[in-house]
Amino acid sequence: MTVDGTIRIVVVDDHPLMREGLRALVASLPDIDVVGEAGDGAAARREALLAAPDVVVMDLHMPGTNGVEATRAILRSAPATRILVLTMFEDDESVFGAMRAGASGYLVKGARQEEIVRAIRSVAAGQAVFGPSVARRIIDFFAGAPRPAPAAEPFPELTAREREVLDLIAAGHSNSAIARHLVISVKTVSNHISAIFAKLRVADRAEAIVRARQAGLGTRSRQGDS
């Protein structure tokens, strides 16, 4: 983000009207600024490197390089960039392909304008965001997947504090919420998260959430929030 807290975004979609619509949506918002546009995945990578945005709002199915490949390429070159997928498709291949590539959020076109704006802000803040239909698909996928018998202590390579942090990440909490919950600084939370990513060999928060929830983490924290 800029020094005044403005979120810099690049909009990627092969339909000019969709790009214009997103630009118009955020034009009146003081905290979001469109700094670039692209109509395909290859152009998206170039634009992301040139504009150095906080968030790329990414379509998936485009001519040439698709959004999944573009997401992977952008995060290899600029790992601090957040990718928010905004697409017409919510099939398993699209959803989980985007998650594996490192997307931090996934919305289906047709989402309300306020939902899109809220997702941009949340992803920029380091949170994972999924639209209701996509979240249900993820839940159903893991509910129906065979799970190994739980180990006595998941991820034994992590310290007790790192497991606490991972548990809260899996529950969907932001870094600031984790800091408040554990009564530690946001910087300390960030250090723990960096150590978790390195030890689990995951590239991003979304992949860490998937790994953690597969191991049964995050459930108690989610129940406790209700």
Automatic annotation (TrEMBL):
- Positions of the Response regulatory domain: 8-124
Cite the PROSITE patterns for this sequence.
Answer: HTH_LUXR_1, HTH_LUXR_2, RESPONSE_REGULATORY
**Xref: InterPro entries:** CheY-like_superfamily, NreC/VraR/RcsB-like_REC, Sig_transdc_resp-reg_C-effctor, Sig_transdc_resp-reg_receiver, Tscrpt_reg_LuxR_C, WalR-like
The name under which this protein is listed is Response regulator
One Pfam annotation, family name?
A: Response_reg
- UniProt domain HTH luxR-type: residue ranges: 151-216
Task: Say yes or no: keyword Repressor present.
Answer: no
4-aspartylphosphate, modified sites: 59
Q: Which UniProt keywords apply?
A: DNA-binding, Phosphoprotein, Transcription, Transcription regulation
